[in-house]
Automatic annotation (TrEMBL):
Residues 8-178 form the N-acetyltransferase domain. One of its GO terms (molecular function) is acyltransferase activity, transferring groups other than amino-acyl groups. Transmembrane segments: none annotated. The lineage of its organism: Bacteria, Pseudomonadati, Planctomycetota, Phycisphaerae, Phycisphaerales. PROSITE patterns: GNAT. SUPFAM superfamilies: Acyl-CoA N-acyltransferases (Nat). It comes from Poriferisphaera corsica. PANTHER family: ACETYLTRANSFERASE. Keywords: Transferase. This is Acetyltransferase (GNAT) family protein. The keyword Transferase applies.
Length: 179
């Protein structure tokens, strides 16, 4: 299915998007799942505004003890400011991310999958990665995830290897995209 991008924007999260964030989170995860937004989970005040501020600060900071590297998270929204997806661009790789996770992670709202949104987000993020001095990006996915495999291939991904990792139930695939 073709993606209509004229009514889409890839933006950074703002404090006024709290309800949209929770709607997106609740569509992706079972009830009572802790927030995926690390900054919200680790925030002592658990204030959404504080978490958004911490997320902005994470572009320049890392936390090796938590396996965190500097990263930017962008949110795909439509004209109604509904979050359709998110993409996390990690500016560098830790040893753990070099094994599994890579430079990029993305999610698409279950009601909006198979519309090309993940491909759109990844294509929009490639020039951003280039501005950070990267010449290629590592992206990993489970070998039984045809949707992610398709997204990565659509964006020029070249398969490096399929590998078994001890704590993963299925082999993972490591792909590189040249910028």
């Amino acid at each position: 299915m073709a993606t209509t991008t004229s009514n889409l924007k890839l933006i950074e999260l703002t404090p006024n998007m709290e309800q949209a964030y929770w709607d997106f989170h609740n569509a992706l995860y079972p009830p009572n799942t802790p927030p995926r937004l690390h900054e919200l989970r680790s925030s002592q005040t658990h204030s959404f505004t504080h978490a958004v501020d911490l997320l902005k600060q994470s572009r320049a900071k890392s936390n090796p003890q938590l396996g965190l590297v500097p990263h930017s998270v962008y949110w795909l929204i439509n004209f109604d400011d509904q979050i359709l997806g998110s993409i996390d661009f990690r500016h560098e790789l830790s040893p753990q991310l070099a094994e599994f996770g890579g430079h990029i992670g993305y999610n698409v709202h279950p009601a909006h999958r198979r519309k090309g949104y993940a491909t759109y987000m990844l294509k929009q993020t490639l020039p951003v990665a280039k501005t950070h001095g990267l010449t290629r990006l590592l992206i990993t996915c489970d070998s039984n995830n045809p949707a992610s495999i398709g997204v990565i291939k659509n964006c020029g991904g070249i398969l490096q290897e399929t590998a078994t990792i001890s704590d993963r139930p299925v082999p993972i695939m490591r792909w590189w995209i040249e910028l």
